[in-house]
Amino acid sequence: MTSQPKTSQPASILTPEERNLVRLHVDGPIAVITNNRPEKHNAMSDEMDRRLWEVLAELRDMPELRAIVWRGEGKSFSSGRDTGQIGVRTEDISDLEFIERGHRPTQMFLTMPCPIICALKGWVIGGAFERALLCDIRVAAVGTRMMLPEVAHGVIPDSGGVARLFQMAGHGVAADLALTGRVMTAEEALGHGVVSRLVADEADLDAVTMAMAERIADAPAFTVKMARRTLFNLSAPEVQRSINEEAVAQSMVFASDDYAEMQAARAEDRTPVYRRR
Predict the structure, then answer these.
(1) Where are the chain's structural domains?
(2) Which CATH code, of 3.40.50.1980, 3.20.20.70, 3.90.226.10, 3.40.50.1170, is assigned to 16-268?
(3) How far apart are CA 31 and CA 63, in angstroms?
(4) Per-residue pLDDT tens for 22-49?
(5) 80-89: long-range contacts (C-beta < 8 A, 24 or more apart)?
(6) Would you list the DSSP string of the chain?
(7) What's the pLDDT tens digit per position in 164-206?
(8) Nearest to 100 by CA among 4, 14, 7, 233
């Protein structure tokens, strides 16, 4: 694996309530991360993100860890970004710096020392879908719905998920999801290799993903490490390159006339007139 990315974030102290937004349970060689904002379908807030990065950094420093399961409490894995915080920024920094700072901890999904298995259910939207795509394995319950709605909000997916979709499903499927924002069902995702297994319901989802983690944890540690190294070298460099390009593209989008026109048209309840710049 490559060297670990720096994950420095603005200094902050999480309250007990904020720490509970992402729960962590470690039992011997297996860790379970749980998105815990079920009343909001686990929509990701700034506080939830900070807790997630804290959890991943803690797990990264556990050499005895062999597998991680990432799941969601309630009906959904995650409905994506909390819409109440979209576009909200409290610091006077450039768009590029803002995006790149978020990308640094995001890349921990690529460089964790052990596999991450995602247990997907309900809604899996936007950045949450992209983060799941960066993990090693995805298992979905019947009824799971995945989508990348960013273009409808005037921005682009920027966490490497499109590159992963391209690798898994090809240009046509990646373009369809990224440009139309349509829903991909669990059954379609299985057909494209986006998820590797489909289970009947939430109870099966937890049982299957935990059994997978236990099987990985029981295998020879060095063998698993070398298998993941091979997979990493096949796929991760292109994803990391895409993330770097997405940061520049997204900062250009934020500064574009068309993005400003979309925002203005929505505020004024009128049809936007785009100038393609």
Answers:
(1) 16-268
(2) 3.90.226.10
(3) 12
(4) 999 999 999 999 999 999 999 999 999 9
(5) 80/43, 80/44, 80/123, 80/125, 80/126, 80/127, 80/128, 80/129, 80/149, 81/43, 81/44, 81/126, 81/127, 82/40, 82/43, 82/44, 82/45, 82/48, 83/43, 85/45, 85/46, 86/153
(6) -PPPPP---------HHHHTTEEEEEETTEEEEEE--GGGTT-B-HHHHHHHHHHHHHHHT-TT--EEEEEESTT-SB--B-GGGTT---S---HHHHHHHHHHHHTHHHH-SS-EEEEE-SEEEHHHHHHHHHSSEEEEETT-EEE--GGGGT----SSHHHHHHHHH-HHHHHHHHHH---EEHHHHHHHTSSSEEESSHHHHHHHHHHHHHHHHHS-HHHHHHHHHHHHHHHHHHHHHHHHHHHHHHHHHHTSHHHHHHHHHHHHTS-------
(7) 999 999 999 999 999 999 999 999 999 999 999 999 998 899 9
(8) 7
